[in-house]
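Memo to structure team: turn this sequence into structure tokens by end of day. - J.P.
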Amino acid sequence: MNDLSRSRSASRPEGRRLPSYFDLIEDELRRRSGGGGGAPKKPLPTKRAVPSAKRPGAGTAFSRAAGNNAVVVKVLSYGAGASSARNVLAYQSKEEKALDQDGREVTDLNAAMRSWEREFSNRKGSQDILRLTYELEKADGEDIKRALGSLAEDGFRQASDTDRTYAFSVSEGLKGGTRLHFALVIAHEKNDRSDRSSANRIPAEIDDVRAIDERLDRALRGAGITPVSRYPAEFSSGPKGLTATLHAMQRAGAEVTLSTKTHLRDRPGKSGRYERGGERRDVTTKDHKELTAEGKVIGALMQTRQPRDFMHLLLSGPANVDRDRFILAGRDFLKEQFAGHRYAYAVHNRNDLEKHPHLHVIVALRNASGKMLNPNIRDFTEWRVRFADNARERGIPIDRQKRIERAGPPPVKRWEWEMFRRMGATAPANVVDKVRAKLRDTPTAPKREEAKKRLEQSRRSVGRVILMLEGIAKDRSAPSTARELSHDLSIGLRREYGRLETAVREGRDPTREKGEDHMLRSTPISAAQAKAAKETLANTALTVAAKIANPSDRLIFEQATKIIGKVVGLQLDSRVGKNRDRTESGSDKRSSDSLETKSAAGRDHIAEQSVVNRSSNNRSLDASRIARSNAEYDAPEADRSNRERPKPQQRDRDIPKSIKLRPPQEKDKDRTR
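Reply from structure team:
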């Protein structure tokens, strides 16, 4: 096989270059539109089948290679209650009036939420904070602090319950006495955000409240403080409930003391990490904002269960999209996907052409029949597919794709954008790198285990494809056209993949790397040769795929071979077309079924016609047999038809019974088939 580096560079006829993704896309569009050049003039049919979210296939890669943007459909938040829904709807309507599911403008937010509230559930969140209020005889704040500190060491509910967060404030009580506000987190406080256990939750039952009250009463009396009376117990839910409780305890200028083992650990160059453990830390303050900040730190590790009445959904598109068509696509998607649910949507950045247009949508999770919508990752994938389909029907080049399926820049949080905008190059190094990677759209190495696993699977699949092509190229029983094309493709793929890996390893953006021209043979071939080559590659790919035990690895390998199959099909079809043109123009008087392609040692027509090849390693015998075959096909058609083909038995007599193995001669080193 000729080395690509020694290819015949004196003349490079048109059509010999390896087809690019853009060639494949145009070919696919021509195929869909029924022929003709360029993109189809009429849009694709509106009737479509439900797309499969399990197999993104090569179509996604083609679409992304053409510059199509990945569709963005994500849930920003969930909420409960009419008040929260009104706040979300007010934010959505800051630029334009929101439209509801019937296409009517939402002019009165309060009236709209009253109609929504009838379909909201009455379920309340979990009871996470217990608040007890006492009337004491005149007492000193320091004595109360010491008594509560000893109670924290002994345990609030039982002897081992010593790690809970608590807060208290002391103010003036009735008849010259002292009023004590005491708040205790009875929800499970996680060790970190990955903790999914709930072993330390105290049920909000009357027996548990009574047990906590008795231990607190005993601790106060042990410090010489006499409780006179206690108000009814109160409960609050979630981080917001904790913050509201702290603010209520701070009224009338009282100081609030917060004692917790939860803290935010600073990490140089990285965002902070929420952790629980170690020594207790006490914070005493009157500042409203400081209490809010501390409440957020504690609430970050509080395990809570909040009701869900609605979700805040985002549909985003590229900055250069046709805004009107994008909004219509979003409207059609919402009408199709959330039929029977109340929803309202508003457009942001409709007129700002430098920013991405997007739709903010609020969707009631309970429909008119009482059925709840509980979306998960499979639903999000399906929504992306359907929204992308609606957009493509309106001529918008948007594609469905997960972040894990593409080498994209890391996500940048809002505070990182603000820090980079204000501090510039003096910002932490990790923030600068993330923002620059986002601005330049530079891919980075994956850090999540799932993404690393997917990357390794892709590497293995590329390696399998290259080994498969190299195996076909070395298989002397395979058709010569398949051997040549496999050899050229394997060299091109190995060089290109190695070049991109080097760019990533050295920190360069692989999308900005200048590619190389990997040449393929373009000599004319017959339709029979093209068919034999396609069948050889297809059958080999099926055989290799059947031997891959891991279903994920097999799926990625099949996707890769689909792209290779598209390249092979385009290349072989172009060579068949050249042969047809030569035959029609009369420049070649041989039939279209003749074998045109020649390698360095000549074409073996007998092997191409699937005749059993019984040749030996004796190159002189091979050369004589091939010469006879070529002479027969080079003869005029009349002579060829009158001449009888030698029988296989006559050829067998020329083959020696014994074979002597010998090293290749000096003159045979560069002669390959």
